[in-house]
Design goal:
TIM Barrel; 2 domains; eight-stranded parallel beta sheet; alpha/beta; six-stranded parallel beta sheet; 757 residues; 26 helices
């Protein structure tokens, strides 16, 4: 039996990867120094996997920013706005595509399937692909030369790459696949020529909805790859759900098939048992959860693998591995010295998951009933967890009744117009302002006990005063307090609710060098006391303009946490919703009657198969409405979403019944606007007019162009002007400059609208 893994976290045990990148972007290091640091980090990651006992180790999953961006650059798919480039793409062009520059906007960024990882979306329009650099080959050679590792190069497969790309007509899909397939063949041939044994081609899109026409094109593409490079073993890897077209997929001309047996709802196992598995192929069984952080029940996993063994006649062709890349988990539990000991024993991050995989192999290969210590310790762990009341193993059976605000949006809107008296095209921001080193230092001092609560509050209030003044000077119509007291939009709330635990070093990559430390939901979630009232009320006392109360919504808190796996997700979401509902009531009671409940992760939780969408959207919408519907008619409820394919869920967005929603549109160059050409949206809406994830300050004319496009499909009296996301990652100088341009653009557009009426 063989052990394998699909990918390893890039961020580093002490976030070395992040620090190296940001030092280079800040011009504190040279390109040569960056390459050296990245090589050291990359090799260290390979050493750790090698030391754990994993047999087949991936290479090429490491990146300087994003693996989809790597694929686009490798195939020369560089949009014309970055200049004409032939041959190997310069590093600064690569980063410009990811982050933008002062003169050129970045490529679009959106969620990687239903995860909180963001990838850079390849743009294809007007481009002809060509192989610029065989990056997997270079990384394979490096691993073999430096560490003696016979690595497994990893590529995003041609089908998934195209499904995740943009700017080509659906009818052109087959043409693009035909253009890309020879390039994949060239990459694979060069790998085969140096003796590569296995290549992992990731095709997670095969777990979504695949048409018969697409299946035929996929079959043709993989037949070409097999014909062109017959000597190379291809592992076709799927994850995140079950493969519906099982019989077709397992008969593709590849040497192995990777299936997810954790997030498949039991469908992959059922297919293997009832339809069989080809005797000439490897079955790479994803049995350890690559997305969550709980230790597996060893007995359950052994039983699963024994079931699979009955369908794989040659047990040497059964590989044991995680269900997905460990990119989605923190690096190691060992550094978490302050967690409850029982809870810590229950956790398994990337390094621990590698050991779980190796342990399963050893137990399966054991010919005797001898030392079963690993099983006994695992069984005792789960008994200890049950004794604490943390594990309930409850089925998802409880129905829920609809909740809604007493008045319709139109009826509420009239009352809110009178109450707030805002100008047409009102301007606001999404919530956060720059989190400077000074702000982070204050929080660290408070946490370490080096600063009193009184002194901390005084300093935070000083930052709030400064930014209330900045917002008034800039000319914004609706203000925010800036969120200087918040470390993270989910962690902040989790720290103040029952049922959450927190780590010190468990960082996970969200996009680029941006990492998050997801809270751990281990018990029942409940409200304890007001969490945001003090700072919001203080900010409101400083201005006559409205200040929004800023909250994170229940679905986002759930999706951006490591959730408990013993309760259905929707039940946990409803618990969180009741807690947020209590906070909304506390804000309203304190006189804050414009409240934003952000749900940026609502779309990302959408199942990969359309047949499963409605069930998820029903409970997600219910959770939001549970948190937001018990307010006065004049209280204006806002929400925010970012970097998602909104056309998929426009009806659900409307069903949230928020008075105002803000949605990202800048990185997609306004592509979301096509949604509103085909669908009527009858509530307040702000389409982000500039990209806050880029350091560039866009000109007024650029933002005005976005506003004009928006007003071509949306009524001016419903439209708000705002950035596309929070501003915590930007500098004070960038933020003020960009917001001044934004307000100037709004003023021009306001005058244009008034002159036409």
């Amino acid at each position: 039996m063989t052990t394998s893994t699909l990918g390893y976290p890039r961020i580093g045990e002490q976030r070395e990867w992040k620090k190296a990148l940001e030092a280079y972007w800040a011009k504190q290091t040279t390109e040569d120094e960056l390459h050296k640091e990245m090589k050291d980090i990359r090799l260290n990651h390979l050493k750790k996997q090698q030391a754990s006992g994993i047999d087949v180790i991936p290479v090429g999953d490491f990146t300087y920013y994003d693996h989809m961006l790597d694929m686009a650059v490798m195939f020369g798919l560089i949009p014309e706005r970055y200049g004409k480039i032939s041959g190997q793409v310069p590093l600064d062009t690569y980063f410009s595509m990811a982050r933008g520059s002062q003169d050129v906007p970045a490529c679009e960024m959106t969620k990687w399937y239903n995860t909180n990882y963001h990838y850079i979306v390849p743009e294809l329009e007007g481009l002809t692909p060509s192989l610029t650099d065989n990056r997997p080959l270079a990384l394979y050679k490096e691993a073999k030369k430096e560490l003696g590792i016979e690595g497994k190069p990893v590529l995003v497969g041609p089908y998934s790459f195209l499904k995740l790309a943009k700017h080509y007509e659906t009818a052109q899909f087959g043409d693009w696949l035909q253009q890309l397939t020879p390039l994949y063949s060239q990459v694979l041939k060069e790998l085969a020529d140096v003796g590569v044994l296995w290549v992992q081609i990731d095709e997670p899109s095969l777990t979504g909805d695949v048409s018969e026409e697409e299946l035929a094109l996929i079959q043709q593409a993989y037949e070409t790859l097999r014909s062109d490079v017959p000597q190379l073993n291809i592992l076709l890897q799927t994850y995140f759900d079950a493969v519906d077209a099982y019989e077709t997929i397992v008969e593709l001309p590849v040497a192995g098939i990777g299936l997810d047996f954790v997030h498949d709802g039991g469908k992959n196992l059922h297919a293997v048992e009832t339809k069989g598995f080809p005797g000439d192929k490897v079955l790479a069984a994803g049995v350890i959860d690559g997305r969550n952080i709980w230790k597996a029940k060893v007995i359950d996993k052994l039983t699963l693998l024994q079931q699979l063994e009955r369908s794989v006649a040659d047990h040497s062709k059964l590989w044991v591995q995680p269900s997905a890349s460990l990119l989605h988990t923190p690096v190691t539990v060992k550094n978490e010295t302050e967690l409850d000991p029982t809870l810590k024993r229950a956790l398994s991050f990337a390094d621990e998951k590698l050991l779980e995989v190796v342990t399963l192999k050893k137990l399966l290969e054991s010919k005797e009933d001898g030392d079963r210590t690993a099983i006994q310790e695992n069984e005792q762990l789960f008994k200890d967890l049950e004794a604490t009341g943390w594990r309930k193993e409850q089925p998802d059976t409880a129905p829920f009744e609809e909740v809604k605000r007493p008045l319709s949006y139109e009826e509420r809107r009239q009352k809110q117009l009178e109450k707030w008296d805002l100008p047409i095209l009102p301007t606001t921001t999404i919530g956060s302002f720059p989190q400077t080193k000074e702000v982070r230092r204050l929080r660290a001092q408070l946490k370490k006990g080096n600063l009193s609560q009184e002194a901390y509050t005084e300093q935070i209030e000083a930052h709030i005063r400064t930014w209330i003044q900045h917002q008034e000077d800039i000319g914004l119509d609706v203000l925010v307090h800036g969120e200087f007291e918040r470390n993270d939009m989910v962690e902040f709330f989790g720290e103040r609710l029952d049922g959450f635990a927190f780590t010190k070093h468990a960082w996970v990559q969200s996009y680029g060098s941006r990492g998050v430390k997801p809270p751990i939901i281990y018990g029942d979630v409940a409200f304890k006391s007001p969490m945001t009232v003090e700072e919001t009320v203080y900010a409101q006392s400083l201005t006559k303009l409205p200040v929004k109360g800023m909250l994170t919504g229940p679905v986002t808190i759930l999706n951006w946490s490591f959730e408990r796996d013993d309760l259905p997700k929707r039940q946990v979401a409803f618990q969180i919703a009741e807690a947020i509902r209590a906070e909304v009531a506390a804000l309203e009671e304190a006189g804050i009657e414009m409240i934003q409940i952000d749900e940026p992760a609502l779309r990302e939780g959408l199942p990969l198969k359309r047949d499963d969408w409605q069930s998820y959207l029903d409970w997600a919408v219910h959770a939001f409405r549970l948190s937001s519907s018990y307010v006065k008619d004049t209280t204006q409820v806002h929400t925010h979403m970012c970097y998602s394919e909104f056309q998929d869920i426009i009806d659900a967005i409307s069903a949230l019944d928020a008075d105002v929603i803000s949605i990202e549109t800048s990185r997609s160059q306004g592509d979301i606007l096509s949604t509103f050409e085909d669908n009527v949206y009858d509530k307040g809406i702000g389409l982000g007019v500039y990209d806050i994830h880029s350091p560039r300050v866009p000109a007024k004319e650029e933002m005005l162009h976005v506003i004009h496009r928006a007003l071509s499909v949306l009524p001016a009296d419903l439209f708000w002007v705002n950035p596309d996301c929070g501003l915590k990652t930007r500098s004070e100088e960038e933020t003020i400059a960009a917001l001044k341009e934004m307000v100037s653009a709004a003023v021009v557009a306001r005058e244009e609208v008034s002159s036409k009426s």
